[in-house]
Amino acid sequence: MATQLGARFLRTQGLDAAWMDARTLLRAEPGSVPGRPEVLSATCSFAPDGALEEQLEALSSLVITQGFIASDEDGNTVLLGRGGSDTSASYLAAKLRAQRIEIWTDVPGMFSANPRSTPTARLLRALHYDEAQEIATSGAKVLHPRCILPARQYRIPLHVYATQAPELEGTVLSAEGLDGAAQVKAVCTKRGITLIALESPGMWHQVGFLADAFQVFKLHGMSVDLVSTSETNVTVSLDPAANTLDNTRVAELVADLSRLCRVQVIGPCASVSLVGRNIRAILHQLGGAFEFFEEQKIYLVSQAANDLNFTFVVDENQGDRLVEQLHELLIRPVPGDRILGPTWQQLFAPPPPADIRVGPWWRVQRERLLAQLAGHDAAFVYDLDSVRSAARALRAMGSLARVHYSVKANPHRELLRTLRTEGVEFECVSQGEIERLLGLFPDLDPQRILYTPNFAPRAEYQWALERGVRVTVDNPYALSAWPELFREREIFVRVDTGVGRGHHSHVRTAGTRSKFGVPIVDLKEFARQAREAKVRVTGLQAHVGSGVFDVTSWEHTARLLGGAAQSFEEVRVIDVGGGLGVPERADQPGVNLQQLDTLLMAVRAEHPQLEVWLEPGRFLVAAAGVLLARVTQLKSKGSVRFVGVATGMNSFIRPALYGAYHEIVNLSRADEPATELVNIVGPVCESADVLGHDRLLPVTREGDVLLIANAGAYGSAMSSQYNLRPPAPEVFL
Ligand SMILES: *Cc1c(COP(=O)(O)O)cnc(C)c1O
Fold this sequence. Notes:
It is a single chain. By secondary structure, this protein is an alpha/beta fold. The chain folds into four domains: 2-176, Acetylglutamate kinase-like (Carbamate kinase, 3-Layer(aba) Sandwich), CATH 3.40.1160; 185-341, VC0802-like; 349-362 and 624-732, Beta Barrel (Lyase, Ornithine Decarboxylase, Chain A, domain 1), CATH 2.40.37.10; 384-619, TIM Barrel, CATH 3.20.20.10. It has 24 helices and 33 strands. Helix 3 packs parallel to helix 5 (145-153) and helix 4 runs antiparallel to helix 5. The structure holds pyridoxal-5'-phosphate (PLP). Pyridoxal-5'-phosphate (PLP) binds at residues 406, 408-409, 427, 429, 452, 543, 546, 577-580, 615-619, 713. Residues 406, 408-409, 427, 429, 452, 543, 546, 577-580, 615-619, 713 line the site of pyridoxal-5'-phosphate (PLP).
């Protein structure tokens, strides 16, 4: 009915549209079982059909027909199954020897990851059929793998466009571009994967073991996806898209396999696939993503024989995070990229409010910044308005009873004063930090300072308790070795939630390999010990890592702490830590505070007796600071160019320590086009003294001023006298 209406409508618009029934155009092939046609998931022949071509030509230049259906040999209606309409288009194009296929759907093409869960997924402008096929079979749902086959066989370019945004460029699949440099183009994931591990010491050198095992899968009608083998173990994966994996069927399969060897069923798992060309050539880049898997299990690794796909199988609940990490690490467009297009967010995000659209504060303040550096070689410059607006954004969150600034991010007195005026409290990790606060604010109630030491000496705890500071204990050792110190006192306990988060292994502060916190499973024992020692535990705290954007991280912490609070009668506060990420690049979204607030509100509703506290450092001050440094010298070594500046890791160690990315611009030439790819390096005698790799800058000269953005947190605070080069001084705009 819809296509009939469509054809009529087009005719009222003056177009010569004819309508034809797809069941006269597409004929289903006989099913695999003779006499039993595949009624719900038929396949059709698509060899070029000259007679059909002539018939349509005679009919009209515009023919409307239905997707998804065909007829069998007896004229009965059959369905093409999943992705059926796209497959209809592809079949017809092959039969009519079309020059082009366009598929108009609800997403504007194929993306480098599922854009609904990874908003930084990028549009893939062009793909080879084989790559698209891999992406489609590895979990992407835009095109069904079956629809690619006819286009590929007859080399018909296939374009994907979005109906709701017809102006977007879309994706084109063609036979071009499979040779060329190694590149990961997409990170895909599939859920609901079941692994079957076959184990037998007897299989080593045994002829026909695999044949016997696979025969069993065949008899049970199970299609095997990935395979990995060792001398005593063969593990295969079963994909729910190709198999019915209910418990009974899996149990029957296992029963039969058990006659051959020991069988273990593992699942539910997720597969995570890297798709692109020459995938093997990029394996060395994966290190960073897998550091995260130190404490998680990877069950199976499979490298596709065609070198277009590399797949990992992990626990199902780890899949999305692995995708996020790998995507962040590997999908990095170069300027003028012909494959990687804009991100989903850039295409569909609502325009940012006007004050963000003008860019960061330092773009607006360029002249003042340049004036400020006159006569200096380098300086940190801070903008207090940015600090105030970050503080206000957090203070506006209804779920939070308190926001404690983590002083270690930047202990500059001017920043501390500003934050106090904004109603922010403080969190310290050393005696020195507390002394600075008490000196600066003689009227500050020490109970409002949160002190979170880690492996500090006994005397520091004693000092803090005597000063009336609120102390967090993160090791049962403190209670058992120094019970007299804590008797009748109130303390907080730092909890290790078991899962670390963050942008680098050095900033992930939970998990058994991290030195912080009391493991959640040991809390009951800790509570008992505290009761015995007459210590009152009034708060639980956890800080799982830094540079986190996923708001469910704090929700998860809050829920864990809320649950753990039940082991302690007097707990009234759960402190969910800091770690709120600050966007590194202009197109990266920040932490969604509104969403975070909603999630934390929900946790509060479950535990009405508890207050929720937050203790961010970076979030409050990072964007408020920039490092300015004057260009000293230029150098080229072969094709590699270096721009030297007057200060480096002695002022700003984050790039060297964490591989942190900080935007760098030539402030003196902000209006000139960026045309040169350079490394920005400092004057320190260390090859790690690099502030930015492969950055695009305008042609830069000695004396120009470079600006390193987001340097307000862990910048000056981590600076050193290394090489006896004084770090950059700090000034305020
Ligand atoms: C460093 C630290 C924070 C702050 O981390 P940010 O990433 O700067 O927000 C919070 N709590 C504790 C215990 C910390 O050590």
